[in-house]
Design brief:
The complex is a heterodimer. By secondary structure, chain A is an alpha+beta fold. Chain A has helices spanning 21-34, 48-57, 62-70, 74-85, 116-124, 127-139, 177-189, 199-209, 256-269, 272-275, 305-311, 337-346, 362-371, 377-384, 391-403, 443-452, 481-486, 510-522, 543-553, and strands at 13-14, 89-90, 113-114, 196-198, 236-238, 246-248, 279-283, 298-303, 319-322, 327-331, 347-351, 355-360, 407-411, 414-418, 429-434, 437-440, 458-461, 502-506, 528-530, 535-539. Chain A has a four-stranded antiparallel β-sheet. Chain A has a four-stranded antiparallel β-sheet with strand order 9-10-12-11. Classes of the chains: A alpha+beta, B alpha+beta.
């Protein structure tokens, strides 16, 4: 293939790849599986609280700002849509019309349901097959007016689009965008890798070698009245602004291919291939836009070797290495969802990147073993690892796994004590503690059964915070009524009371009150004045300050204090 | 609003200086109370002067205060319309009850026997100040209220009591097999005596009598304010007569005024009392050309052998429904199976039921009829012995959390955290109250362990 290289990239703006769609789909599914997420009653969108929580978990940094500024995130919508189309989650998308005059459906109590089986089936696939499924899904995503010509459905795209008006008629509806994208991907796979190539050159290549890759030479329109409209009837440019005066692109125009197919190639490159990390793209320097939609803004692209590997199904499975210091290194070209999911149960996820670093934790291993008794941690790590586990790790893991049995709680059970060995309670037994003492299920049914067996059972309902005493005559390991009475009283709650003695001075008039109050304020003595009653109140501890203030006033007044 | 808040508001905001002066004079408070609302607030609930003020009230006012005591909470001013007001249905709330409030203030608030407050205005409902007024009799004054019927008389001996109302109904329903089961109040179903479809209790039987009385004493419907807290004639009569002393009786004339106040309408007291007597809930006697009434007093004990007759041929015991007290019948029914005597002679045949005996508490087992049955009849005695052997041998503990702790240090930590609320069972098992689970979980987590959960299916 003869496509021009770009030597000088200094003036071009290379778009960094900030999003990881593979990781985000799994993060979204994990979030939904752990919470009851309700969709909006009217718009069927994910609620604001859940969206904000998800924004913090997803890889795309713009999700949070989109939600805050626009109340909507295209990236979150894409992830949600892919998870639904894969069948990993389910929810109502049709809705119901609440009344005869309803103009649009509503979605009452529309909760997202996680399909554990479908997710398990996806994880069971190899990395290459998972990638194949994702690729197939994205290749068919967006047809007609949802295609790259008119819509930027996948992630964040810089380039603007054609006006979609009229795109449901004429040539666009008959185009098979899945096949078009596949053919373009194959073409990209044949390009040299690791070098910046010119987009204009690629368009020229297509013009010379495969001019009708997008729109057939003689399209067979479905409707008669479209026959005379030509191949480019759906595509109009504008010189004023996006929605301004429009210029119809004619097939006879010498640069018609560049203006239609060329624009498509630009928009395709910044869509699916960039999103999946198959290509990197670079934009030209910013200019004042005079033509809408823009043309020639995306100027360079660089194909990754990954594309060839994906198309040939040769993506390697993740490799895992465990060090004697209990660190686990997981290396994978694509997001190793299954391995991460397994490892997160037993490890702390330290670093998330092309190489994921984990650290094995005793408590997590024990908890995982407690949750799933069939889990063999050593076997799990060995199945993922390319090298044998270090001896110390193997030994410790076996020890940690046994740690999960140290505390076993029996939920929803009751305790049966009986001296009657002939009591038939086997069908209710969960665990036998000792002869005559059993952990049992279904206490109501068991009680009726014991009554039928004429065992005169006693039912002791224990309190929420304390154990109820059993009757004294009963033979039980639980404390009896007398024993319970003998127990020491609980320690009394300690209370400290603050005693504040306050003194009230009743003044003869407002003037004296003001002067005394001012003097006390000068020495920062807290007093409470009541002008109606001409009184000043203060705590006894401030007696010296008040005496001092009164002594000052004695130079003008003859002060006498009467105690009441 | 709490009474303490009502008192604070009354003393600090609502009472004018004249009101305080009047109040202090009526209750005999010291001069300091006049000067300080705080002192008045402290003194108000003291017993000082309360009895004297209450003794000086009119009978109608006193009856209203007795009714207010039974309400046990604040009421609005329309409550006192029964004492001071004329029935006026026109005009605004303030126009209708302004005069009533003036009287209440003059007669009760200024004399220091009522708490007075104003509720806060609600957000979307504009109400007048009078509508927001609330009045309450303080709990501290309940014991100072003079008797509702001051001239009640004491007579020796019992009165005339229609004792057979309940037993007649029992015999009628159980003896008449032609009636459909649904129409009968009492019936025997699956070996169980039932009243209104539920296991027999004396309280349900008494409620049936009360309903009969209420139906008989029903008054034509009259308008009363929702907030007036008026009672039905039968309820009112029970409330009034329950305040009489043990041997005291009241005649119809004495009952008329309190009954009017309690029902907030004029009621024929004689007819109400007569209906109460007919339904077996009141006793009556004629003395000094007057008819006197009181609530049925606790009856003398009836010897058990007068209503329980052992029937050795059929291994059962006959219960004479004419003689058996309702409370004893409830106790007998609670430990036995019942069936109607084939002769239709108003008696019930009972046999012991071990399941019911097992469910019986110690008090029921120690009751006189049960003990008599155990001592005098073989089937009951045998069952009782069996029960004594087995009782307390099988215990089902509910609402208790159970766990197996195989780490000694963890077990010690849990024991230390829960103190006496943990029971150590054999083979490393422990039991503790369910409500303490969070505490245990904390200890487990702190000690670096995890919880393995086994859920009973």
């Amino acid at each position: 293939m003869n496509i021009d290289r770009i030597r000088n990239m200094a003036k071009l703006d290379v778009e960094p790849s900030g999003q990881d769609i593979r990781r985000d789909v799994h993060t979204f599914v994990a979030y939904v599986s752990q919470r009851r997420v309700k969709r909006g009653h009217r718009d069927n969108a994910i609620g604001k609280a859940d969206s904000m929580r998800l924004a913090k978990l997803l890889s795309a940094p713009e999700v949070e700002s989109d939600l805050t500024d626009r109340g909507y995130s295209p990236w979150l919508y894409t992830i949600d849509e892919i998870a639904r189309q894969w069948g990993l989650v389910r929810y109502d998308t049709k809705g119901v019309y609440a009344g005869y005059t309803s103009q649009e459906p509503c979605f009452p109590d529309n909760y997202i349901e996680f399909d554990k089986k479908a997710y398990g089936q996806l994880l069971a696939l190899s990395i290459a097959k998972q990638e194949q499924r994702l690729l197939e899904e994205l290749l068919s995503h967006g047809q007609g007016s949802g295609s790259e010509f008119f819509s930027a459905a996948l992630g964040t795209c810089r380039l603007d689009r054609f006006n979609p008006w009229g795109s449901a008629t004429a040539v666009v509806p008959m185009l098979d965008f899945t096949a078009i994208r596949k053919s373009l991907l194959k073409l990209l796979a044949n390009c040299p890798t690791g070098e910046w190539l010119s987009v204009a050159s690629l368009v020229e290549y297509l013009k010379q070698n495969d001019r009708y890759f997008l729109i057939p030479k003689k399209p067979q329109f479905k409707n008669k009245w479209d026959d005379g409209k030509g191949r480019y009837t759906n595509f109009r440019e504008s010189r004023k602004d996006h929605w301004g005066h429009e210029i119809q692109i004619e097939e006879t125009d010498p640069d018609a291919f560049e203006r239609v197919e060329g624009r498509y190639v630009e928009r395709f490159l910044e869509g699916l291939p960039k999103l999946l990390g198959y290509v990197e793209v670079a934009y030209g320097p910013p200019k004042v836009q005079k033509l809408y939609p823009s043309l020639g803004v995306l100027q360079a692209f660089r194909v990754s070797e990954r594309l060839q590997r994906v198309l040939s199904g040769k993506i390697a499975e993740p490799t895992l290495r465990v060090t004697p210091s209990f660190d686990v290194y997981l290396q994978s070209e694509l997001y190793p969802a299954r391995a991460i999911r397994e490892l997160q149960r037993i490890c702390e996820h330290v670093t998330e990147d092309a190489t994921n670093v984990f650290h094995l934790q005793r408590q997590r291993v024990a908890a995982a073993c407690a949750d799933d008794p069939s889990l063999d941690v050593v076997a799990l790590l060995e199945s993922l690892s390319t090298e044998p586990l270090p001896a110390n790790v193997r030994r410790e893991l076996q020890d940690w796994a046994a740690h999960g049995d140290k505390f076993v709680l029996y939920s929803g059970c009751s305790l049966l004590e009986t001296n009657k060995q002939d009591a038939n309670t086997k069908s209710f037994r969960v665990e036998n503690i000792s002869p005559g003492v059993d952990i049992v299920r279904s206490p109501d049914r068991l009680f009726v059964e014991l009554e039928k067996q004429q065992l005169a059972p006693l039912r002791v309902k224990h309190g929420e915070q304390t154990l109820s005493p059993v009757p004294d005559k009963a033979s039980s390991v639980f404390p009896g009524t007398t024993q319970a009475k003998k127990k020491k009283r609980e320690a009394k709650t300690k209370v400290t009371l603050m005693r504040v003695t306050s003194v009230q001075l009743l003044c003869p008039d407002n003037e004296f009150l003001d002067r005394l109050q001012r003097l006390l304020a000068d020495v920062s003595c807290p007093v409470e004045a009541d002008r109606k009653r001409l009184s000043l109140s203060y705590a006894r501890q401030f007696e010296p300050e008040v005496t001092k203030a009164i002594r000052t006033l004695r130079s003008e007044y003859e002060v006498k204090i009467n105690d009441q | 609003m709490k009474p303490s808040e009502m008192l604070h508001q009354m003393c600090h905001s609502l009472l004018a200086a004249t009101d305080i002066k009047e109040l202090c004079r009526a209750r005999g408070f010291a001069a300091e109370a006049l000067k300080s609302p705080g002192i008045l607030e402290t003194l108000f609930l003291s017993p000082q002067g309360v009895s004297e003020v209450l003794a000086s009230l009119e009978p109608g006012e006193l009856a209203a205060l007795h009714l207010l005591r039974s309400v046990d909470g604040p009421v609005d001013v329309s409550f006192f319309a029964r004492v001071y007001g004329k029935r006026n249905l026109r005009g605004t709330f303030s126009q209708r009850f302004q005069s009533v409030f003036s009287e209440v203030k003059q007669r009760l608030i200024r004399r220091g026997v009522l708490l007075w407050s104003e509720e806060r205005q609600r957000l979307f409902k504009k109400e007048s100040k009078l509508e927001l007024t609330r009045l309450q009799l303080p709990v501290e004054f309940y014991n100072h209220l003079p008797p509702l019927i001051p001239a009640a008389r004491e007579f020796s001996g019992a009165g005339n009591w229609n004792a057979n109302v309940a037993s007649d109904k029992l015999i009628e329903d159980l003896g008449n097999s032609s009636n459909a089961t649904k129409e009968r109040l009492v019936c025997v179903e699956d070996g169980e005596l039932r009243i209104s479809g539920k296991p027999f209790t004396s309280a349900t039987m008494t409620r049936w009598q009360q309903n009969g009385w209420a139906e008989a004493a029903k008054q034509p419907k009259q308008f009363t304010y929702e907030a007036s807290k008026s009672k039905q004639p039968d309820e009112a009569m029970i409330a009034i007569l329950s305040e009489l002393d043990d041997h005291a009786w009241a005649d119809v004339e004495q009952l008329a005024e309190p009954l009017r106040i309690f029902c907030d309408t004029t009621v024929d007291a004689a007819a109400v009392c007569e209906a109460g007597w007919k339904w077996g809930l009141l006793e009556r006697r004629r003395e000094e050309d007057k008819t006197w009434y009181r609530l049925v007093s606790p009856q003398d004990r009836v010897a058990v052998h007068r209503y329980l007759i052992p029937n050795e041929q059929d291994d059962c015991v006959t219960v004479d429904l004419r003689a058996v007290p309702l409370a004893a019948l409830e106790q007998i029914v609670a430990i036995s199976n019942q069936r109607v005597s084939p002769g239709g002679n108003g008696s019930l045949l009972i046999t012991p039921n071990f399941v019911k005996l097992g469910r019986a508490d110690d008090e029921l087992l120690a009751s006189e009829p049960v003990q008599w049955l155990v001592e005098h009849t073989k089937p009951f005695a045998e069952m009782y012995v069996l029960l004594s052997e087995r009782r307390g041998q099988t215990i089902l503990h509910e609402d208790v959390a159970l766990a197996r702790v195989s780490d000694l240090s963890l077990k010690v930590a849990i024991e230390k955290a829960l103190g006496q609320n943990v029971v150590l069972l054999k083979n490393d098992f422990i039991a503790f109250p369910r409500g303490r689970w969070a505490e245990v979980q904390r200890v487990v987590k702190k000690s670096g362990h995890v919880v393995k959960e086994i859920v009973a299916k």
